[in-house]
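The aim of this short unit is practical: by the end, you should be able to scan a pair of folded records and say something sensible about each. We start with the first protein, listed as its amino acid sequence and then its structure tokens.
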Amino acid sequence: KGVCCVPGHDSGMLVFKLERERPAYAVYGNMLYYVKDRFLRQLDFNSSKDTAVMQLRSGSKFPVFSMSYNPAENAVLLCTRATNLENSTYDLYSIPRESDSQNPDAPEGKRSSGLTAVWVARNRFAVLDRMHSLLIKNLKNEIVKKVQVPSCEEIFYAGTGSLLLRDADGVTLFDVQQKRSLAVVKIPKVKYVVWSADTSHVALLAKHAIMICNRKLESLCNIHENIRVKSGAWDESGVFIYTTSNHIKYALTSGDHGIIRTLDLPIYVTRVRGNSVYCLDRECRPRVLNIDPTEYRFKLALVNRKYEEVLHMVRNAKLVGQSIIAYLQKKGYPEVALHFVKDEKTRFSLALECGNIEVALEAAKALDERSCWERLGEAALLQGHHQVVEMCYQRTKNFDKLTFLYLITGNLAKLRKMMKIAEIRKDMSGHYQGALYLGDVSERVRILKNCGQKSLAYLTAATHGMDEEAEALKETFDPEKEMVPEVDPNAELLQPPPPINPLDTNWPLLTVSKGFFEGAIAAKGKAGQMAADLDMDAPGGEGWGEDAELRLDEDGFADAQDVLGDEAGVAKEEGGGWEVEEDLDLPPELVSMPAGAGASTEEGFFVPPTKGMSPTQMWCNNSQLPVDHLLAGSFETAMRLLHDQVGVVQFGPYKQLFMQTLSRARTCYLGLPSLPCLHGHPLRNWKDAGAKGGLPAVGLRLSDLISRLQQCYQLTTAGRFEEAVERFRAILLSIPLLVVDNKQEIAEAQQLITICREYIVGLTMETERKKLPKDTLDQQKRLCEMAAYFTHCNLQPVHMVLVLRTALNLFFKLRNFKTAAMFARRLLELGPKPEVAQQTRKILAACEKTLTDAHQLNYDPHNPFDLCAASFVPLYRGRPVEKCPLSGACYCPPYKGQVCRVTQVTEIGKDVIGLRVSPLQFR
């Protein structure tokens, strides 16, 4: 249609759009305002009535780029973005209250230059002008005030009195009234911003990424897409629905996301309500698409713990597919998936995961595979469900394990059967082993004799007092060829201990409260069972009177034995509705009987107490600081926290620190002799910890690291650079494992990071400089550049003197006198020793005679720059920079995703929460 240009080349073709296809629109309440064919149109979502409300001013050859609507004044700002950004303009229109849709009015708008204009109050709007400064204007398009803002490329609405400012690295929440930044989040090149209806959440849309934040611009989740992100809108339930070129997708604030449906052509979502997605296509036509929200509503209900809604959807919705099952397993709800999965193999795996042996047994019977029986046997054995274990061993014909199971449960009858089975199978080893377990000496003698082991058979019989059998065996020996073994006179009879209390029932399990889903399903089952009982009892009637009476003889206890005998179980269940007399005169022997004489043995069943929570588990629950999880021994969660907070991806260098920290976590002391040691868990908040609020004592302190810093300074002064770098790096890696109590110490920890970074970068560069050759002019120039860069590291004065002297000498030898003179002046300002100052003044006097540089170097001392810690080249202000999330070391963009050269553990350019060393940082 004349909107694309497709040039071809040898290996393919490229497609370029000649015009912007995204329509400009704004949504307020049930109304959609959008621009189409030089008209501002209004669409009512409820009635689907689409009318033109006014005609726009003509004259611009560029389409409207963006729109900002003011419901209080019924005004609209339309921004037009030109190819040359300096020629961009915006128009301020007041929308007519009443207009003819067939012949709409054409009000005269107020046009001014500006990149973007958005409303910030009822009668104020902000304009980002061509100089990238912020102007606040009134409804007359007059400048009210100018606001100084940080570097800004684009502005977005952020509620009354606030704006979102986009720069190259991220987005800043800016308060226009107070003229200060409230929060910053890192996400490059944000193109669109979508707020939820209550402005509690915001979605930041970049070209291939989405970041969802809360009102304070704290990142909740990041989503990366391989295809361009086109648009998005918030669902009524708080789910963000967005589109790419090919799909409609959803994103929960918890980070879960997925595909809802595919698209033939790109669309731009304007509103989501129920099962409908309201959108505009590329031809600016309003459309309504139907979607199935079951999947994301199900996940949202799980995240929000709305278990009634989850249960309803499990029973009524068609939730099928491996993705839902995998999601439930990942989130720790395998029992939910168990209720609607029909595939027996999947049911079996889920039942084992949630410990449901009964369901796993049913699935194993249906599958009848050896691998399933083996897995079920292992799971049942862990729970002490030995009856199921027995069945599994029988199905897999694992006779050795089955024999041992009968031994440890004390089932001698079945153990004797296993011995007979081994004899039938001609398994001499299993046969003899069974005889050993049973203590059957005669059987052992017979087995040894049948195996041809006459000597062992004779010794066994003689040792165990079987004299007749021993004499019979002795006669079979040939005196000339065989020697009769001697019997040890000190031999004793060893018999396996008999089982005093054979284990007939399964091992008792702890009584735990059922989960919501198990309880709901069980309640449903009980209700059905109760209904069945009532149906069985219903045919009763008035004939119960005579049969329910207890007929007593003259003495009053003629039928007492019958009652306590055969009908004891029935009498136990009789309630108040039965016509039974309770105050009977019973004989003394019956009165003195125990109350539970005729009751079930289950009345004495012991229910062990529920296991409490260990102190280490409480530490993990009470804190989000990595060191507390390390002290608790939870390395996995500590690693996850370090990854999320400071971007650690290589944990090898942390191994020694982790083990040292764990070794300080607890104390050991002897309670009673002959018993194992007891463990104590020292707390740092023992005064106000209470029962469950404890936090571990931390052995590493900020003051310790500061004292170690002095040792690093001494090594630097002595010129032992490699050893100094290792010491500085050890301090740097230890800082995330600190716990501090106040804001001053937090600032000191941040300052310590800066010191370590500056020294590591500088000393590493100096070490590399000394390794470089210096034969050619280019090599000498590179040596001078690195020496000059070193002078911009923030070092202690004593070290800066040494660095400046090195740079001064190198530049003087290269005949770059102008730069050498600058180094000389900086050196004299530091107040060096008299002899050093005297020599420096001589060099300065020589340089001032010829204040020129003989060679051009990649070094501009007057232009502020950061130093790339990998390539050791300057990154001047305005150039893109990637930083290490822990040390703050700067890198060129190609190094993004690599491991930081300073820390050797963190990922360059990773988006993280930030360093957390104090509970104050979580408030």
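Turning to the second protein, read its sequence before its tokens, just as you did above.
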Amino acid sequence: MKKFDKIIHVDCSRWKSPRALQRTIAQELKLPQRVMDIFDMYDEEDDFKGVDEGSRAEILFIGKEIHQVLTVHRCLVIFHNGSSDMVNLSASGVLQGDFFYTKVLWTFRGRLRLNPGISDKVDDSHMFIYSNGIRYEWNLLLKEEAGEIAGYTNKLGKAVEECCLYLLSLNSQGGDIMDYDWDNHASSYWVCDGIIQGGQGDEAWELATALHQHINTGDYTFNTLPSFGHRLETPPRRWILSKDNSIVHPESTSFFLAAVASESDPPLRTLPNVMFHQPNKLRVLKLCCCTFSFSAPPFSCCHSLKFLGLDHCKDQQVEEDEKQDRPTMDFFHSLWVLDICHTDWELDLSANITEQMAANIREVHIRKGRIWCHNFSWRQLRKLHKLRVIEPTSPWQTGKMDEFSDMVKMEYLDLSGNSTIQVLPCLSGATRVKILVLDGCTGLEHVGPEGLPVSLESFSLDVCTRVDQNEQAKISCISLAGCGRLLKFILRGSLPNLEELDLSGTLVKTLDLKEVHAPNLQKIILLECLLLHAIIWPEKGLPTLAMLHIDSSVSPVQTKLHQTYVTIMDLRFFQSLVLQTNVRFCWKSTRFHLNLHVPCTTNVNGQSYMKEKMGPGNSGQIMGLPRPKSLAPNTYTTYIDVSVGNIIIDHDYNNGMQFQPSSCHVEIGKGISNAKVESEQVIRATMFAMDNIESLHVHDNSSIIIVIPEYMTSIDGRELGWRHLKQCHVVRCPKLHTVFTPNYDRIYPFEEIETFWASDLLNVHCIWNKGRTFSGTDNTSFSKLKSIHLYSCPRLTFVLPLLMGIQGSYLHNLGSLHIVKCGDLKVVFSVHPNLKLKEDVLEFPSLKHIHLYELYKLQHICEVKMHAPKLERVWLRGCWSLRRLPAVSRHSGPIVDCEKDWWEKLEWDGLEVGHHPSLFKPRHSSHYKKSLPRGSVLW
């Protein structure tokens, strides 16, 4: 150890992922917080991608930081590898070899891992396996390991060592012939045997469960013998695995009988009646492949019994007169856990026996067996905490909906393989149920929403595990709406009748549907799912999905039920709405509303807003809070003959403030930021979504400087062209600098745009910037643009650069131009120097209405001369730098409502080109300015 000046202890005995390993190394090296924050950033990215925790890789940048720290030290890394394979530590930044001073000491057996094949997987490392030693030394090693584990648990102390010894000792005696089912019963064994004291209360069971989580018992499930278990010194005769019918020793507390028969012996062994007459301390008993009288079991005298397990046992028929003398089943009174597997024990469930069972029993596990003749109402066992009835050999249902009522202590319910259940009994009275497993319950017709406990945290319906592969699942609706603690949701297999899935109000983070085949699924509703980050769809999507409602907002929103409505809090969620295989939306409906904003979760009184149930009669109008006031600091109006409210009404008397979304709509609101989007998958999905929307509403966002950043508008040779966008409404975004950044060298953007409205953009410089161009002509971009409305954009300098045209006609459908209070605006339409014009005049063949108000720096509507043959009305106030109006036809006679002194200063080209004052009808108000105060100010 003197060779090293730094020792790093990296404990990944509970293996999570390569990234978790790298994070542990970074924590041990005490890397600065700015580096540690990168882990959270990458984890958040993977959350939105739907990457499970175990698949998360190392981060290259942090690997370089770790390497940089280690290069200045002679370092020893003590690495507890909890995975089942070799780990490339170089990817985490720990480089080894002749040119580096870092050495790694590996161990693969932490947390009692078996992992016998790891020696075949190691590379050319210098391997030294400690395998010799006396029993005392092995127990000393186990004591050290138990001490490590105890550090992660509370209040157990030395009991951890004894629990580990229990596991290793019994498994070494015959893990290859006895199914201990450690995954389900390890914690129960520890409590029932008395190693962890206080089994009458809940605390002992909670401590045992916590300990179980730190020991990988999965290695023991496959009957793998530990190579050192037989070397441990264990309490003599206390924990016994027997292979014959020997008498149980009085000191035994746990006894497992694996009746292994030879080829000449019968398949089952008969238990002698006197087998359990002496063991008064026996607390755990499991019998396998035995036969005995079920009506008079030989263990009926074991009054201290806490755990009883029967596996592949059969009833030994007795004569009628012998039944008269059968003993009482008093052992049920002390029993905490009953485990029945491949055994039909038809108990005489009289009132006395049921009362005995109900006294203390906490867990009942039944797998491919039963303890009843016809049916059994589980509500009689009111102290049950865990119930597993898996593939019973006969139905247990009584046909009543209250079979689980009043079971207020039950936390775990597993009904897997109960294919005869058609309706899930009511669980609303079972107020502590956390885990509900319905795998293989193909007869179920629906789940919820009524009758489910609000305490539910985990739900599973996996019909891939069904017994009869030819039997179709009947379930048509799964609704866990209102289960506010639900974190884990598992759905797998073929569900041909499923039509609706509702997880509203749950805490599900990732909805994984990739293994679901639901050809008739029409509705998915995910309202108020505040933690939802990703949806993983089947490879080909859900072709019949007509309704998708995702809304983490708590403000009241109403929409038609036949629409797809999605409210998300991050642009990165777009990748969950688009199938990556063929780049299309995951739903069938052609109508959708995507709302991007960070919702407010409480109102001013601290109370949660609740969304009302949406009905089919609701309109598609967005309902919300009253419209906020203008952000402009000065709303003073110079002209008393002007109502600003009337200015924003176009010639068809439509108020732009009352924006109506189209059938394919995106709304970007408060809190959304597009500054940190780097994933190519997100960029592709965002581009696809924006290329398919018909209306866009951007409002009340104080962070974005551009609607979609330029780096997100191009990828893989494709450009964002806003191909279907018809309406755009942008308001109250104080940091917005540029609305759109289109390029024209590869595509023709904005082919369908008809209306653009913007107001209260305090820092916007332009609406459309001057992007890349090409030498050809473009007669499709903006060809359908009908109206432009701009209000209170004080720093706006230009609106739209005109690039290429044919015969001087570019905006040939523009009919209305309304611009109000844009003090820095110098030109509305700037002109590209290569624009091809006929006689230096740009045609505006449909322009009818021009409203310009308080544009003090405006010099040109267009940088070249304009011809507007259909012009009907020009309305101007406060545009003192403007010197030209468009030329008109000789017979149009447009009205010009303006100041008289401004009219008198206009410049004209002559009657022959349609540009003469006689072709216009000027109107001047005699009171167009506010009266100045009378008198004078004396200096």
